[in-house]
Each structure stands twice: as C-alpha cells, then as structure tokens.
Prior knowledge:
The protein has 15 helices and no strands. The protein has one domain (3-301). Helix 3 crosses helix 11 and helix 5 (75-85) packs antiparallel against helix 9. The protein is mainly α. The chain starts with a helix and ends with a helix.
Amino acid sequence: MNRLTIVLLTALAPMAWGTTYLVTTELLPEGHPLLAGLLRALPAGLIAVAIGRSLPRGIWWLKAFVLGILNIGAFFPLLFLAAERLPGGVAAAVAGVQPLIILTLGALVLRERIRPITAAAAAAGAGGVALVVLGPAAELDALGILAALGGVTATAAGMILTKRWGRPAGVGPVAYAGWQLTAGGLFLLPLTLLIEGAPPTIDVPAALGYVWLGTVGGLFAYVLWFRGIQRLPVIAPGLLAMLSPVVATVLGAAVAGETFTPVQALGLALVLGALVAGQLVVRPRTTPPATDRAEVALAVRR
C-alpha cells in the first residue's frame, strides 16, 4: 500500500469524528455525554477483540491500558468538560493546537527533528481551525481551556506512545484497536455510572446515533487511525486530526442550517493548505516499521 493511500485512509478517521457533534445534538439524549463516549468505545472494543482473536500478553496488558486511557478514556471526560464550559468553536480551536504539541513531544520522545516547514504548516493549520470555528461572541473559561488542552495533550501523548511502542508481532490492527477501545471503555464505565447514573430511555433515533458512533466513529475510525499512526511520520496524522472540526463546521452549515462566512472559508483554505503542505514535506519511511518487519519475519518462519 503506497503512502498516499495510507494518508487518505487515515484521514477518514477524523472526518468520521467530525460527525460526532451533529449526531450528538440531533439524535442523542441531552445530559449524557459520558454515556455516548462509553457506548462509542466499549462495544466497539469488545467486537474488535472478538474479530481479532488476540489478547495482550505480558507487558502489553499495561501498554494497552495506558494507550486506551490516553487515546480514549481520559480524552472523552476532558472533552465533555470543555464542551460544557466553552462554546464548541472555542473547544475546537484549542484542539487545533494539537499538531504543535505532537511536534514538541515527537522531538522529546521520538527524537524527531522539527522541520521549519512542518512547524509552519502546524501553526497555519491551528490558525485556520480558529478561523473556521471561532465567532465574534466566543467566550473563554479558564477551566474549560485547561480541560480542552488536557484532552488534546492526552491524545497527543497517546499518539507518540503508539508510534514508539508499535504493535506486537502477529497482532492485527483490528485487535490492536480493540485493546485500546476496550481499555478506554472500561475506564469510562464507572465514571459514567457515578456521574450520570442510570442510562436514559433510548429511542430509535438515539439507537441509530449510538450505532453510528460505535461503528463508524469507533471501530472503523480507530482501526484506520492507529494503523496510520504506525505507518506515517508522527506529525502526519496530527495534521489530519484538524479535519474533525472542519467537517463538523461544514456539516453544521450544510445540515443544521448554520451560517458559513467568508472568514470561515478562508480558515478552511488555510487548514487544507496546511494539510497538503504537511503531508508533502514529511519524509516517508525508507524501511518498513519494526512491527511490519517482525510480522514478515514471523510469516517467513511459518
């Protein structure tokens, strides 16, 4: 599979996540965001583990738990806290700084050199996201800002560790995603019961919404996402993540009748330009990832 195909497939994940806001506001019951996160993660994780027919071994029990908490379990509560205390546009704009966080963590943990063009693409993308989602009436809240920053930092750290630890030999991407979704879902289960209590009555639209979040936004998206993280330079999926707030804004204008202004169009152009520039300047790997080499060696021995 060539690099362009991997990039396009990985991009489908944040695009799927961009539908979350519309699905949540139009289909799901109000006041139960943690339940939405739980149903997005745990059923998809259990299904993926069953399909992959593989459980962690040894140290990978701990690694899967850590990755599941960072990428899913910690991210959802912080995301929901930010959503409660900030306008959606402000929260999304804060999320736009994630590529800059990934660049910094990648340099510290993975020893990846920060290229000026890549840093400029990340900064331009963050500015573009701000133009797309921020309005003149945007309000700031210190705790909400900290929660939003904590959420994107947790997922950025999860991406870096996913890249550093790779995937065990003989374990497919579906099982690997299932480990993390299950760990994140199990982390969310007691939080959901303690904070939100018993689940509400679920009607047909809500059921359809939860199915969408668990399949397309959960199982499908995270399999592609984790696979892309391992095969691409670390900043590449970080830039692709900016597609999520862009898709959310476009859907809001197209489906929910929200206004799409010329300033937002300029922001959209900046984000797309940053995405293209970021993907072009990062260098593809000249050798297969360690995980892939190990799997090839295992297949040869068999």
